[in-house]
Amino acid sequence: MRKLPGGVLAMSSDLCRPHSRTLVDEYDVDAATGAARRRPWSFPVDLVSYVHQQEILSVLVPDVEAAEVEAMTAVRGASLGVRQSTNTILMVSPTAFGFNEQAAQDNSFMHVASAPGAGSELTRTVLREYAGLHHALTEVAGVQVEMYEHHLSHGTPDAVFPNNWFSTHAEGEGDGKVGEATMVLYPMKCPNRSAERRVETIQSLRSRFDYSKLVDMSGEEANKKYFEGTGVLVLDRINGTAYVDLSERADAGLAADWVEKIGYSNLVTFRSSDLRGSSVYHTNVMMAIGTGVAIVCAESVKDDRERQHLLASLRKTHEVVEISLKQQDSLCGNALEVEGGKGLPLMAMSTQAYRAFTDDQLRVIRRHVQDIVHAPIDTLERVGGGGVRCTLAELF
After folding, report:
1. Helices and strands (H, E) in the chain, number of each type
2. Pick from 95, 70, 82, 88: which is nearest to 10 by CA?
3. Exposure string (b/e) for 57-79, b if CB count within 10 Å is 16 or more?
4. Which helix (H) or strand (E) holds 71?
5. CA 227, CA 170: separation in Å to the nearest integer?
6. How does DSSP assign 82-140, residue by residue?
7. Pairing relationship of beta strands 293-296 and 319-322 according to DSSP bridges
8. CA distances from 202 to 91, 184, 188, 214, 227 (A)
9. How far apart are CA 235 and CA 38, in angstroms?
10. What is the distance between the alpha carbons of residues 395 and 386, in angstroms, rounded to a whole number?
């Protein structure tokens, strides 16, 4: 551990590994004699847990002795009071999940399946997988989940992927330039995805989480311009950089408008494709950004200048894990950093993605997080074409 200027405590991520776990005892100091005495009936506690319980401002870094540690994004965020990830997530139970013919027009990751509904094998299987993901996030990782549901009558087969129609942003985000707690509504390409923007859900979230500012971009649907939330936006929330893979679902003009309206400083745009040569439908399929580590399929960006610009921007602030097109197909890029119950970052992904990473790649990711949490959601991935990140909408 190392105490940095500004009162930030830098902790090595090794402290989160079983082989390096550190236990501490608590002592009382006699005011008169200065003698320290171990507290009676106290037991050793995990150091990382103790730091969290004492509400000490702390961050995880790969190496506390590194010369550049004070300039790391994790330390900078703590100093600014800005987080890359949140402990509170909105999820929508896949009670009416099904193959979405409208979305399949430009999502090559999707595969046809039987209709959903009571007694449907698809519904039973997806709900069983989803319960496992929910358990891993809440019971194992300590993430707070706000659970919503949808019904067949809503006509929203992809509602299980809620991060596309809205996003939330804390005051101070974007290098301190987001002026107030903000909720953004987005224009969706498919009509049955637009229907996911239910008024009662919006009102509930705004009142419960006090989003004083509402930016509504959904009117652009009338102009056939689309910009599908944190599906097309992969954000460096601390440094104020938005990464956007331009596609039918990510309009270049709306990307520039978003940066201006929200208050971000930098916009990095590019175009990418998958193994089949199809345009990648959402940015969050080919890349993810955590506090200290970024995952990206640079190979999918065919234009050399765009690819080099993307990598240079990421490397300025993050350690980068490059994945292959085959790994992208296994949804390795569809990961999300969340804040666990100990106040430290965790990387969430599907088991398919986890198994597709190499040991060296996983080792690099773990240098920046408390742990990696994963669950098998094979049916959701095969039928819906989206992974764990797609199922999680961040509530800041």
Report:
1. 14, 22
2. 70
3. ebbbbbebeeeebbebbbbbbbb
4. none
5. 20
6. --SS-SEEEEEE-TT----TTGGGS-TT-------STT-HHHHHHHHHHHHHHHIIIII
7. parallel
8. 14, 10, 16, 10, 18
9. 46
10. 20
Distance (Å, rounded) from C-alpha 347 to C-alpha 392? 12
CA 104/CA 122 separation, integer angstroms: 17
Q: From first to last of the 396 residues of the chain, give the pLDDT tens digit.
A: 999 888 899 999 999 998 888 999 888 998 889 898 888 877 888 999 999 989 999 999 999 998 788 889 999 999 999 999 999 999 999 987 765 455 445 555 545 555 555 557 888 899 999 999 999 999 999 999 999 988 887 778 889 999 999 999 999 999 999 999 999 999 999 998 999 999 999 999 999 999 999 999 999 999 999 999 999 999 999 999 999 999 999 999 999 999 999 999 999 999 999 999 999 999 999 999 999 999 999 999 999 999 999 999 999 999 999 999 999 999 999 999 999 999 999 999 999 999 999 999 999 999 999 999 999 999 999 888 889 999 999 999
Contact between 238 and 77 (Cβ < 8 Å):
yes
Give the residue ranges of DSSP H helices in the chain: 47-53, 73-80, 121-135, 173-176, 191-194, 199-209, 229-232, 252-262, 283-286, 304-317, 325-329, 351-356, 359-366, 378-379
Q: How do beta strands 27-29 and 36-38 pair?
A: antiparallel
- Do the beta carbons of residue 52 and residue 344 sit within 8 Å? yes
CB 70 within 8 A of CB 5: yes
Residue 17's CB: how many other CB atoms inside 10 A? 12
Which residue type sits at 286?
M
157 and 145 Cβ atoms separated by less than 8 Å? no
Token pair of 149, please? Answer: 């549901």
* Residue 92, phi then psi, degrees to nearest 5: -120, 115
Tokens in use for 157?
Answer: 């087969």
The model's pTM is: 0.92
- Answer yes or no: are the C-beta atoms of 248 and 226 closer than 8 Å: yes
Beta-bridge partner residues of 211: none
What are 45's two structure tokens?
Answer: 């506690």
